[in-house]
Design a protein that fits this description.
Blueprint (H helix, E strand, L loop, with lengths): L1 H5 L13 H5 L6 H33 L8 H10 L4 H11 L4 H50 L5 H59 L3
Helix pairs in contact: 3-6, 3-7, 4-5, 5-6, 5-7, 6-7
Length: 217
């Protein structure tokens, strides 16, 4: 009894640890296409982030204009010197129609809708990558189950290999799909807020145009 008490392994058996890489290696090769899909989706998102920051940087000069005291000539000069951005496109469209405030409102709406449509292409690509990752995980499940039952063996190692392919590939597919959808949702929020802020800015310019028309400019 004393020997058993001294032997701590009797009460706390040694648990074999394994790394994440070892876990991924049990996916039967499905980890590589799932990883490729994840990288492709993240590249698409990163490119969208870069475009958003470039657009914001190009629009910074227009965003800092004093709207309350702005004049048509000041806006015209700002438009001619500003780099291409959502704000620049909004300003160009409104300046062409500044004598028709109703048409200006429709132009702002059309340009904002076009910006949303442009981002929806990124959305569709991310959703496709997410669905593909889930599909690859499901395919791994089917392959693992087939490998498990097709051999007809009772060998524990063979059974474990089939179960591991089914479980790990499914896990990787689900995790990849969730991550891609999560990052896309964050990106969609940033893009939507940016477009809404640009629309608010454009509506302020439109309000100024109404005052110009009342003053006969």
């Amino acid at each position: 009894m004393t020997e058993l008490l001294q032997d701590s392994s009797f009460f706390a058996p040694e648990v074999q640890s394994f790394s994440i890489l070892e876990l991924l290696g049990q996916a039967g090769g499905f980890q590589w296409p799932i990883l490729a899909v994840f990288i492709a989706g993240m590249v698409v998102l990163m490119l969208s982030v870069v475009r958003l920051f470039q657009d914001q940087y190009s629009a910074r000069a227009l965003m800092e204009l004093p709207i309350d005291s702005i004049t048509y000539s000041t806006l015209k000069r700002a438009q001619s010197t500003a780099s291409d951005s959502l704000y620049t496109r909004l300003l160009s469209g409104m300046l062409q129609l500044y004598r028709n405030p109703e048409a200006m409102g429709r132009e702002v709406s059309d340009i904002a809708t076009s910006a949303h449509t442009a981002y929806q292409r990124t959305q569709r690509m991310i959703h496709y990558c997410s669905s593909t990752a889930g599909g690859l995980g499901l395919l791994g499940t089917l392959v693992g189950i087939y490998a498990l039952f097709s051999t007809g063996t009772r060998d524990a190692q063979t059974i474990f290999a089939g179960i591991a392919i089914a479980v790990v590939s499914t896990l990787l597919g689900i995790v990849t799909s969730i991550l891609l959808e999560f990052f896309e949702a964050i990106m969609h929020g940033y893009v939507s807020r940016y477009i809404e802020s640009a629309q608010t800015w454009a509506q302020s310019i439109r309000s100024q145009a109404l005052s110009w028309s009342k003053q006969g400019r």
